[in-house]
Structures
1.
Amino acid sequence: EVQLLAVSKKQDCLAIRMAFAAGQRQFGENYVQEALEKMAQLEDLDISWHLIGALQSNTTASNNAALGVSALLLNTTGTANTAVGTGALYSNTTASNNTAVGYQAGYSNTTGLITAFGYQAGYSNTTGNYNTALGSASLYTNSTGTQNTAIGWQSLNANSTGSYNTATGLN
């Protein structure tokens, strides 16, 4: 099935509402702040939003790379971050030098310094620093623990605040 993606950057909400009324459901933006404003103003519509092209913003953030729907979506001042996958580093606002690859990898990270590879790897990390999560759901519940290394499916999954741990394999 072929679907049309309407590029709505630089268009006002009235134009988007008119396109929606005509049947358009998929809209693309590449200015994060503009996208967030439109999402809030048009939340009553069942729109599927997409970030397209090079990530652009009018914040002070720089040297970031994002690929995937909502990857690095909330970043404002963080620099040198790489996010690949839907929701990767979604909540990152000010943290720098993070790498997350995979669906929702590093999703909750706000100020921590992490490397997360895999489906929801490092998902709950918020402020924990120098953590490495390799594998689906590895270091999933870690929030503030530091200098942890988890390799394997659900490795260190239950760790939330512990530090200086190394684990391979399940749990």
2.
Amino acid sequence: KRPGDLRTEKMSERFTVSLTGHSSSGDDIQITPAQPDDLDAILEIEKGSFSDPWSRQGFEDALKYEYSALFAARVHDQVAGYCCLYHIMDEGEIVNVAVAEAFRSRGIGERMLKEMLRFGMSKGVKRFILDVRVGNAPAIKLYRKMGFCPLVLEKNFYESPLEDAWLMELKV
């Protein structure tokens, strides 16, 4: 077994609930812990979503470390999105949320975020934070809908292109 396989098994043992349901377009969505075999699809979504994408190593690390959780959203057995949480004690940082372009505007991002928050709370997280580009109106709208509030404007936080970010927070 590869190290990532063991981490995913441990994560699955600790958190076996998988969220299933239908999106606003009627698609069957499953949100489960990501598996090593999901990484190629996750990397494609990452590259199509961010100007400064994570490396494969970053996602492999997210699969194996005890303080991280990487979830994949599947529609008809195809990876349609993913999200990643780092959690230490009672704080969690949502470091990635992305949906493949072909699956956007179907409620998948919201479903993943709900599952990620549920998972974090099951680990004792009471405060979640995340960074978002100030120009990413759809994401900001989703985060506000989920209860996140802007905390700090981070000047020139993002590169390629240079842009400010909102540090947003949710206390539960």
